[in-house]
């Protein structure tokens, strides 16, 4: 029992030992929770890899306990920024490709902050001196060389005090401390993640949270510095290779996807038909006379669709920003439950956060990014797509590796066979071997589905030996299956436990909106667990809902499949609502009771009904373009419109629509605006 004394965190944040260690020990022998699938890639033939599954059991009790309990329930939200360079003299906005320089500068000051204890202790939110110091946010590279990803310095808990920190972490840091971290910083407003990033940029550079840059891929110089098009990795006629992060993983990822497909990726987004839009619309940016690479013939062989905006590179998808939230789960059972129950909510939240109405300088007839990212990393061959009879490939695969979920994994009695995906493709051999190793049918099916994909990036040094104590090969496949909900087993090297990542939401223009949607999703998970909610619908309906979410103004004008009554029927609703422990298993710590919250304390998300009084970001952007004096109602978004849009977004970031300032329609109703103006 001595080995089992692994401390875990209580609701108050205090580290303690689990009270019922005997219960933990008894359940550690369940094979479905101790099996570990690791994939070894062996070079064969022409350098192609073949997956081979090796099953092992984790024999260390400490590691078992980490798998069962993990840390106490935390969550982490990832916010991604575009870095734009604005020239007021030229009245132009371009993407800045200085990601590496900005990150190096941030890293130096991060090291300075870690060495300055007095400063770090002073970095607190609010006036209460009892609130513990908060670490600086972390910044990470992303696929686009014009992107930054920011996460909190450490995960938040789910208590109300922690929820109150979400917006402030995105938005406020006390300036006195930051002046110590960043000598010479002259600011009056509270420090924000954006401000920390901005302080490491050129004076004309700004971190903004638009999903995509409106003129990425146009014929002019949309980036600074500017580079020649059609490089060896992307072979795109619209963007240079230098648009991608220079780390070898990213250009290799793009090149391998293209090589596996046997052609470039093909993204065709229906153009928005305005009164003066040429019809039929033929994308005027496409060059049909390029002969630099073999793939240049794609456009002559039908890659471009009429009445669509055409794009041909991974950058048009993976260069998109989004808002992702990862939830720490108490154990594998809670993780499996949240994975299932959050899945039907994905399309709803995608539509609610819609923010992507412009691609490559044109208004399009969709409002969200999802399908464009899906197409940008779609490595399926013509046979797997069903365009040719199966000869060299094993399956026809209905979805891209970036797609909506195709499995349910919770051992929930309410999960019916008819809810499962009728078109699910799995590797039967891998499933059999996983089940022989002790994994249950649902979980084995899930991983056997993920393993139908080939690895698309492998480092040679990782092929030298297979270490069953590491999960690197598994994570390689897991991390390149980009589903809208991701089930994340514990890494072998630490005890962070089981996690579920919620991935569909679009990034919002303001920190307030991003915090509101983040907190809303946290409260949804607490409601699911506290009230034992049942959101199950057939997976095919969720897939259909994801397509519906792409429609222009879908949140108001389209209907989504959703369960009529999610409450359990084994108990009266009143009884279930009043019981904080109605859904917990005997072996799990209790879920915190979801009690009332003072509405003025937390950022409130826009109403789920979205009755039109508060606009989505996508609708606001459309209206901004439509009312711009330079817009010719021909669907084209000019340099000047793009410049003014970026300037407006920067203004909204600062003022958040207060006092009827620009962008108020995304944050206030007319009534609220009138009341504020009156005061």
Automatic annotation (TrEMBL):
Recorded catalytic activity of this chain's protein: L-cysteine + L-glutamate + ATP = gamma-L-glutamyl-L-cysteine + ADP + phosphate + H(+)
EC number: 6.3.2.2
Gene3D superfamilies on file: 1.10.8.960, 3.30.590.50
GO CC terms of this entry: glutamate-cysteine ligase complex
Alphabetical list of Pfam families matching this protein: GCS
Biased composition range(s): Low complexity: 573-586
A GO biological process held by the record: glutathione biosynthetic process
Keywords of this entry: ATP-binding, Glutathione biosynthesis, Ligase, Nucleotide-binding
InterPro entries to which the protein is assigned, alphabetical: GCS, Gln_synth/guanido_kin_cat_dom
This protein's pathway: Sulfur metabolism; glutathione biosynthesis; glutathione from L-cysteine and L-glutamate: step 1/2
Segments of this protein annotated with the region Disordered: 571-610
Gene Ontology terms, MF aspect: ATP binding; glutamate-cysteine ligase activity
Coiled-coil zones: none
UniProt family annotation: Belongs to the glutamate--cysteine ligase type 3 family.
Protein name: Glutamate--cysteine ligase
Species of the source: Uncinocarpus reesii (strain UAMH 1704)
């Amino acid at each position: 029992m001595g080995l089992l004394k692994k401390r875990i965190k209580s609701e108050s944040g205090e580290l303690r030992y689990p009270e019922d260690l005997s219960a933990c020990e008894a359940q550690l022998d369940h094979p479905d929770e101790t099996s570990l699938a690791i994939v070894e890639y062996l070079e064969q033939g022409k350098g192609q890899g073949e997956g081979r599954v090796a099953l092992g059991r984790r024999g260390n009790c400490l590691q078992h306990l980490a798998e069962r309990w993990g840390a106490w329930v935390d969550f982490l939200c990832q916010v991604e920024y575009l870095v734009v360079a604005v020239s007021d003299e030229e009245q132009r906005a371009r993407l800045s490709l200085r990601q590496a320089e900005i990150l190096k500068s941030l890293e130096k000051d991060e090291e300075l902050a870690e060495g300055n204890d007095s400063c770090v202790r002073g970095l607190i939110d609010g006036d209460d001196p009892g609130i513990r110091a908060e670490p600086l946010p972390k910044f990470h590279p992303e696929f686009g060389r014009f992107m930054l990803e920011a996460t909190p310095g450490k995960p938040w808990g789910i208590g109300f005090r922690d929820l109150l920190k979400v917006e402030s972490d995105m938005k406020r840091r006390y300036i006195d401390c930051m002046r110590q971290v960043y000598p010479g910083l002259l600011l009056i407003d509270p420090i924000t993640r954006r401000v920390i990033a901005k302080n490491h940029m050129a004076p004309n550079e700004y971190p903004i949270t638009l999903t995509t840059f409106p003129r990425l891929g146009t014929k002019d110089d949309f980036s600074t510095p500017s580079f020649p098009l059609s490089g060896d990795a992307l072979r795109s006629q619209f963007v240079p290779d230098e648009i991608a992060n220079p780390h070898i993983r990213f250009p290799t990822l793009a090149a391998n996807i293209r090589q596996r497909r046997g052609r470039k990726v093909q993204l065709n987004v229906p153009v928005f038909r305005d009164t003066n839009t040429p019809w039929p619309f033929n994308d005027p940016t496409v060059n049909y006379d390029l002969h630099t690479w073999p793939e240049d013939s794609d456009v002559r062989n039908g890659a471009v669709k009429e009445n669509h905006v055409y794009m041909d590179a991974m950058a048009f998808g993976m260069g998109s920003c989004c808002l992702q939230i990862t939830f720490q789960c108490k154990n594998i059972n809670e993780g499996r439950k949240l994975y299932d129950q959050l899945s039907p909510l994905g399309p709803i939240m995608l539509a609610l956060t819609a923010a992507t109405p412009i691609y490559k300088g044109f208004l399009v007839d969709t409002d969200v990014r999802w399908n464009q990212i899906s197409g940008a990393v779609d490595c399926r061959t013509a046979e797997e797509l069903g365009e040719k009879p199966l000869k060299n490939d094993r399956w026809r695969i209905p979805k891209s590796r970036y797609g909506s979920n195709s499995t349910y994994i919770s051992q929930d009695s309410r999960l019916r066979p008819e809810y499962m995906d009728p078109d699910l493709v799995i590797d039967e051999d891998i499933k059999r071997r996983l089940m022989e190793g002790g994994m249950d049918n649902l979980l084995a099916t899930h991983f056997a589905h993920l393993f139908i994909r080939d690895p698309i990036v492998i480092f040679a040094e990782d092929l030298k030996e297979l270490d069953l104590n590491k999960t690197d090969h598994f994570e390689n496949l897991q991390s390149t299956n980009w589903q809208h909900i991701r089930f994340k087993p514990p890494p072998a090297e630490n005890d962070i436990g089981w996690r579920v990542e919620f991935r569909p939401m679009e990034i919002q223009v303001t920190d307030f909106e991003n915090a509101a949607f983040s907190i809303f999703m946290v409260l949804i998970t607490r409601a699911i667990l506290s009230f034992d909610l049942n959101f199950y619908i057939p997976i095919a309906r969720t897939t259909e809902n994801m397509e519906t979410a792409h429609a222009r103004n879908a949140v108001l004008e389209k209907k989504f499949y959703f369960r009529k009554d999610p409450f359990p029927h084994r108990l009266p609703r009143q009884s279930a609502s009043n019981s904080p422990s109605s859904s917990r298993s005997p072996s799990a710590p209790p879920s915190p009771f979801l009690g009332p919250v003072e509405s003025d304390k937390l950022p409130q998300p826009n109403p789920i009904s979205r009755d039109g009084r508060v606009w989505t970001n996508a609708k606001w952007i459309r209206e901004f373009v439509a009312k711009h004096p330079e817009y010719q109602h021909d669907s084209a978004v000019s340099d000047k419109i793009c410049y003014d849009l970026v300037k407006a977004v920067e203004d909204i970031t600062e003022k958040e629509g207060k006092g009827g300032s620009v962008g108020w329609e995304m944050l206030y109703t007319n009534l609220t605006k009138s009341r504020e103006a009156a005061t």
